[in-house]
Amino acid sequence: MSPRPVPTLFAFGSNGSGQLGIGHDEDVSVPTPCIFADYTPSPAPTQTQVPRVSRIVAGGNHTLVLLDDGRVYAAGMNGDGRCGINSNSNPNSHSRFRFEGVTVVDEEEKDEESGGMYDVFTGVAATWEATVLVARRRAHEGEGGGGGVGRDVVFVLGTGMKGELGLGTEMTQAQVGKIRDFPPRGLEVVSIAAGMGHVVVVLSDGAVYGWGASRKGQLGGGLVGEKIVWEPKRIEGVPFRVTDAVCGREFTVLCGDGEKGEFVVLGSLGDKWGILAGTPAAEDVKGYLKMDASWHGVYVHQKDMSVLAWGRNDRGQLPPGDLRSAKEVAVGSEHALALLDDRSVVAFGWGEHGNCGPNTDAQGNVKGTCNRVPLPEGGFEVVGVGAGCATSWIIAS
């Protein structure tokens, strides 16, 4: 089988477990080419054949890249299998220093024609030590037309000491686990997000479910008393149809109709960083394009391309005054990147690992201003940005 083309991706920042996928485990402060196990065959494919990066998510020491053709690549710590199983590598190896394709095998489907193997996914999220993957299972006879489009399947890989695997009481580790009977039959996953220790899923009927740590209210007030939610439970009381979700460290933002300014923040009990107290009225964010969350802040990308944000700012995490507009914003654990109109990239926030570029203050911060990121030479055009746990990404074409 011929190798399939992969995107052009550059990374910088924290890399102690090889999570940047650049071939080693040293931190870097300038964008460095990522290495993919697949490579572009010769002659090079046309631009339309090269897949684009749909999403980049990061745990504490691993990274997952979802492409628009459904492939997922993973790099970083893999001792518990959180980076997935690939036939060309040892799934028990401690770390991967390059991006390798993620494949999961559903043991219950091993006798079927596909062998139970999934290597195409529709969604991906990462907690601190785990990976969550959404795949589409083809229907069998008697299931929606025999061989037609089937139901979504949610797989979990890695470690989750606070229920973030969603596999049931006291299930804290799985190389490949499948969450049974979820989502409910007839519904699809339209959005999936994760914080350090909790996962939230939005379904096609506008309902939202969650599992994992819940004691700070990140899964809604009704589940605070459980402290740990070991399997998916519906989050009740949302006053609108949910369309998307993003997660901070111990809170969740549920989004509705952006034109109406619909959103709600769940969690962060105690509100040390003013995440609840600073929440603007719906009127002030009407028409928002997208919402993001850092560990301790919320970021609203507005229709006029400005960024409204609130929360922790002791290291310059919130947008500085010189960030007037942005084509795209990527929010990491305690820093953010912005792609500007001229295709340049700037960063701000906590950058001790080099994730805000080479120029920081004595405390490792880019505070009160934007730091222009030195872009790689070679005729690349920047088309997107990504950010994770002290990691940063430049997507090029």
UniProtKB/TrEMBL annotation:
InterPro entries: Ran_GTPase-activating (IPR051553), RCC1/BLIP-II (IPR009091), Reg_chr_condens (IPR000408). One of its GO terms (cellular component) is cytoplasm. RCC repeats lie at residues 7-69, 152-205, 206-258, 305-342. One of its GO terms (molecular function) is guanyl-nucleotide exchange factor activity. It comes from the Eukaryota. This is Alpha-tubulin suppressor protein Aats1. It comes from Aspergillus puulaauensis.
